[in-house]
Design a protein that fits this description.
Strand content: 15-25%
Number of strands: 21
Shape: globular
Number of domains: 3
CATH architecture of the largest domain: Roll
Number of helices: 14
CATH class of the largest domain: Alpha Beta
Largest sheet: 7 strands, mixed
Radius of gyration: 23 Å
Length: about 525
C-alpha cells in the first residue's frame, strides 16, 4: 500500500467511510465592516483540515474538501447531479461498453504553469487503479492508452456502469512531473500539492488549518472567492457556536439536527443536502466470538433499537435502514421486510441457543461526535439480552490503525461516508473481499457477495441491476456482515450573505460559492 505505514499512524477518521465530507476550516482575515469593497474571503470550518492531499492515500474522507478545491477531474457533476465534462470537454462509450474515450480541454495548466497533458491523465488513472485505497473500483480497466496529445482511452475487461461515478470521485489529475519524483511525500508537503483546480494551497498545518488563494488562471474562469482559510472544529457544538458568532462562514459537515431550529435566529442559511454518512455496527468476520456463530449475530441484530439510536444522532430525522444504500442511489433495490426488527425477547432466545449467555466482548469506537453515546446505548441494549459488553473508546489514529486497518476488535460502531451515488461503490467499499483492511472494516469475505458485486457493476439495465442487488440484500441478511443502522440528517449551514446552488453545496467546492 502506498504510504500505508505512514498513514496507518497518521490517518484521521473512521470510515467511513465515504467514502462525503471535507476536512478543513477557514479563518479568513476579517474585513473592515465600513469598507465598500466587496467581500472575497471565506472562513471555513470542518472536522479536520487535510492530513494529506494525496488523492489516493489511505486517509480520512475529511480530506475530500481540500482535494476538491485543488485538483480537477475529467468529469464532474452539476447542481442537478448530472455527470458533465470538466478537464475533458467530451467523452464517448463504444457500442460494446468496453472503451471509454476522453477528449481533453486544450490549454489547461497546473498551478505551477505546467500544461495538463494526456500523459498526466494516463499517469493519474494508472496510479489510482494501482492504489490499495481504490484499485477495486478501477478493476474493470485493463489499460489506459494515449491516442494523441488530447485523447485518452480506457479499455475495460467488462462493462462497468459505475465507472463514471468513480472517475468523478477518485479520478483527480495530478502533475506527473511533480507527483512521481516526490514518491512517498507526494501531496504531503506544500510544494508537491499541485493541481489544476480553482484554488492554490498557500499554507497548511496537517489536521489543523489550511489557506488557499484563487487560481486566477483557472480554465473555467477565475473564482469569485479569492481567499479561503480553513480550521479544524471537531466538536459539532463548537462548530454551531462558530457559525452563530460569525467565526466561520461555512461548516463543511452536517450540524446536529437538534441545533438546526436554534440557527434560525442568526444570519445563517441551512441547506438540505443528500445524506452521505451511514452509521453501522460491525462484528469481526475473521476472529472472535462472532466467527461462524450466526445465531449470535442474529441475536445482536434483534437486540438493536434503530429508532433509539437515530434519536441520539439525528433527533429521529435520519433515514433508518437495514442494508447499505438509499433510494437516490443508482442500482438501489427496494426490498420489503429486510433485516431484523427490534425484538429483545427473540434476541434473548438466540443468545441462549448460541450458548452465549454472559458472553463478554469489547465494542470499539472512535471517540468523536455521537459515537460514544451510541456505544453506551448499544452496550445497554446488548446487556438487556444477556451479553456483557465493554466499551473501548479510542483516539482517531489508534482506531484507524488497530480497528479499521488491522482488525483488532470484537465489535465496532462507526460510520462511512459515500462519495458517489451508485450502489456499487458503497457495497464494494464495505463488502468486497478485496477491500478487507480498507473500506471493508468488518473483514467480510463471501464468494456469493463478490459474485453479486461483479454482476451488479456490469449490468446497465436498471431493472435487471436492481434484481441483482436484491439477491445481495438476501445474502446480507443471511450473513449479517454488518448492521446498517441509519443515515445522518444531511445539511450544510452557511452565512446567509453567501450564495451557492443548493445542489452543489454537498461537494464543498468553493468555486461555486460567492458573496451576494
Amino acid at each position: 500500500m502506498r504510504k500505508a505505514l505512514c498513514w496507518i499512524l497518521v490517518a484521521v477518521l473512521a470510515l467511513c467511510g465515504i467514502l462525503s465530507g471535507c476536512a478543513e476550516t477557514t479563518t479568513t482575515p476579517s474585513s473592515d465592516s465600513g469598507s465598500s469593497e466587496p467581500k472575497t474571503a471565506l472562513k471555513v470550518g470542518s472536522v479536520y483540515a487535510n492530513i494529506s492531499f494525496d488523492p489516493w492515500a489511505p486517509t480520512s474522507a475529511y480530506n475530500n474538501c481540500g482535494r476538491n478545491n485543488v485538483f480537477d477531474t475529467l468529469i464532474t457533476k452539476d447542481g442537478a447531479g448530472n455527470i458533465v465534462p470538466s478537464l475533458a470537454d467530451s467523452y464517448e462509450w463504444s457500442e460494446d461498453g468496453l472503451k471509454l474515450t476522453f477528449h481533453l480541454v486544450s490549454g489547461v495548466k497546473f498551478h505551477n504553469g505546467d500544461p495538463v497533458t494526456a500523459e498526466d491523465v494516463k499517469y493519474s488513472i494508472d496510479t489510482a487503479r494501482s492504489s490499495d485505497v481504490c484499485y477495486t473500483y478501477f478493476s474493470a480497466i485493463d489499460s489506459v492508452d494515449i491516442l494523441d496529445e488530447s485523447t485518452v482511452q480506457l479499455t475495460l475487461n467488462t462493462p462497468n456502469v459505475a465507472l463514471l461515478e468513480v472517475l468523478v470521485t477518485w479520478g483527480m489529475i495530478v502533475d506527473k512531473a511533480v507527483y512521481e519524483p516526490a514518491g512517498d511525500q507526494a501531496c504531503d508537503t506544500l510544494e508537491t500539492v499541485i493541481g489544476s483546480g480553482p484554488y492554490i494551497l498557500t499554507s497548511w498545518t496537517p489536521s489543523e488549518s489550511a489557506t488557499y488563494v484563487a487560481n486566477e488562471e483557472y480554465f473555467k474562469g477565475a473564482p469569485s472567492i479569492k481567499e479561503i482559510s480553513v480550521k479544524s472544529i471537531t466538536d459539532p457544538t463548537a462548530a454551531v457556536i462558530a457559525l452563530e458568532t460569525g467565526d466561520i462562514d461555512v461548516y463543511t459537515n452536517a450540524v446536529p439536527a437538534i441545533s438546526v431550529p436554534s440557527l434560525k435566529g442568526y444570519d445563517l442559511e441551512v441547506i438540505d443536502v443528500p445524506a452521505q454518512r451511514l452509521y453501522y455496527l460491525g462484528m469481526n468476520w475473521e476472529f472472535g466470538p462472532f466467527v461462524d456463530n450466526n445465531k449470535l449475530r442474529q441475536a445482536v441484530a434483534y437486540a438493536i433499537d434503530r429508532d433509539a439510536l437515530n434519536l441520539i444522532t439525528n433527533e429521529g430525522l435520519g433515514l433508518k435502514v437495514f442494508y447499505p444504500g438509499q433510494p437516490i442511489y443508482s442500482g438501489y433495490p427496494v426490498v420489503e421486510n429486510s433485516g431484523y426488527p427490534f425484538d429483545p425477547e427473540k434476541a434473548k432466545e438466540l443468545v441462549k441457543e448460541a450458548g452465549a449467555e454472559g458472553l463478554a466482548f469489547t465494542l470499539s469506537l472512535e471517540n468523536s461526535g455521537t459515537l460514544p453515546e451510541l456505544a453506551t446505548s448499544i452496550q445497554n441494549m446488548l446487556g438487556n439480552v444477556g451479553l456483557n459488553v465493554t466499551v473501548n473508546s479510542m483516539d482517531t489514529n489508534a482506531y484507524m490503525a488497530d480497528v479499521f486497518t488491522n482488525g483488532n476488535y470484537d465489535m465496532f460502531i462507526s460510520f462511512t461516508t459515500a462519495k458517489t451515488k451508485d450502489l456499487d461503490t458503497v457495497w464494494t467499499m464495505m463488502m468486497s473481499s478485496d477491500n478487507v483492511g480498507q473500506g471493508n472494516s468488518g473483514r467480510y469475505r463471501s464468494e456469493d457477495m463478490d459474485r453479486v458485486l461483479k454482476a451488479g457493476r456490469a449490468e446497465s439495465d436498471p431493472a435487471k441491476r436492481a434484481e441483482i442487488y436484491k439477491e445481495g440484500v438476501e445474502i446480507f441478511d443471511r450473513d449479517i456482515p454488518y448492521l446498517a443502522l441509519f443515515y445522518e440528517f444531511g445539511n450544510r449551514v452557511i452565512n446567509s450573505g453567501l450564495q451557492v446552488e443548493p445542489g452543489m453545496a454537498e461537494y464543498d467546492n468553493f468555486y461555486y460559492y460567492s458573496w451576494k
